[in-house]
Design brief:
InterPro entries: Acyl_CoA_acyltransferase, Gcn5-rel_NAT, GNAT_YJDJ
CATH architecture: 3-Layer(aba) Sandwich
Number of domains: 1
Distance between the termini: 32 Å
Number of strands: 5
Protein name: N-acetyltransferase domain-containing protein
CATH superfamily: Gcn5-related N-acetyltransferase (GNAT)
Shape: globular
Radius of gyration: 13 Å
CATH class: Alpha Beta
Structural class: alpha+beta
Helix content: 10-25%
Number of helices: 2
Strand content: 25-35%
Strand order of the largest sheet: 1-2-3-4-5
Length: 100
């Protein structure tokens, strides 16, 4: 089964990255600071969408977006931190001094 490729939306008024899938939203909430840091605080995938790799795709696209913006990442969300543990290449965008 081919995975769908979802479009990443940076919903800055609501401070979250989103995939809009039908009438549902998978999201990662964030806090951006004035000095170029982004804190990923919470990941949420609707129960009906679980098990389809949507959370992982969302994290991957968010990390790519953060890298493009040259922000320093602080992954407070355990789901994001776990993803980075499995894909240690992404440590390159994590703020120095943060242990994952």
């Amino acid at each position: 089964m081919e995975k769908e490729n979802y479009e990443l939306i940076d919903n800055s008024p609501d401070k979250q990255y989103e995939f809009r899938i039908g009438d549902q939203i998978a999201k990662i909430e964030y806090i951006k600071t004035q000095n170029g840091e982004i804190y990923l605080t919470h990941t949420e995938v609707p129960v009906t969408l679980e098990g389809r790799g949507i959370g992982s795709q969302l994290i991957e696209k968010v990390l790519q977006n953060i890298e493009l913006q040259e922000l320093r990442l602080v992954p407070l969300c355990p789901f994001v931190a776990g993803y980075i543990q499995k894909h240690p290449d992404w440590r390159r965008i994590v703020m120095r001094g943060i242990n994952i």
